[in-house]
Amino acid sequence: MAESSTSTSAAPVQPEGTYSLEQMKEHNTRESLWMLLHDKVYDITAFMDEHPGGDEVLIEEAGRDATEAFEDVGHSDEAREMLPKMLLGDFYGEKKSKSKKSLTSADGSSTSSGFPIWVVPVALVAAFLAWRVFLA
């Protein structure tokens, strides 16, 4: 009896016309710049010189998911209408979170080092009160 050579743990096949994070990371230079926005992959290389914010901000987000940065800036409808001309295809795979972002609790009360933000204003108020008491 012949044994089957098929494996049940085969890696999923990437659909044609889709791009993975690994492929995107290969295009993070001024010569070839790809970006992920809303699960779509765009080649923005030709647009870099026209970008009103300069090419530095594009290069910083190149080769990864730039959706949050794109939305934070509040791009115009005109900017959004330009995107289809640069579309390469859909994104395939898992997005990894950015390591640059600071970690915050649900109420946004700590920085990336875990230092509570509220300590600074409390310390300033305490210093002011101590100064007033000292002068009295």
UniProtKB/TrEMBL annotation:
Domain of life: Eukaryota
PROSITE patterns on file: CYTOCHROME_B5_1, CYTOCHROME_B5_2
Bilayer topology term: Single-pass membrane protein
InterPro entries: Cyt_B5-like_heme/steroid-bd, Cyt_B5-like_heme/steroid_sf, Cyt_B5_heme-BS, Cytochrome_b5
Entry keyword set: Electron transport, Endoplasmic reticulum, Heme, Iron, Membrane, Metal-binding, Microsome, Transmembrane, Transmembrane helix, Transport
Regions that span the bilayer: 115-135
Cytochrome b5 heme-binding domain ranges (all copies): 16-92
Pfam families in UniProt: Cyt-b5 (PF00173)
Cell location: Endoplasmic reticulum membrane; Microsome membrane
Keyword flag Zinc-finger: no
UniProt family annotation: Belongs to the cytochrome b5 family.
Official protein name in the record: Cytochrome b5 heme-binding domain-containing protein
Organism encoding this protein: Kwoniella shivajii
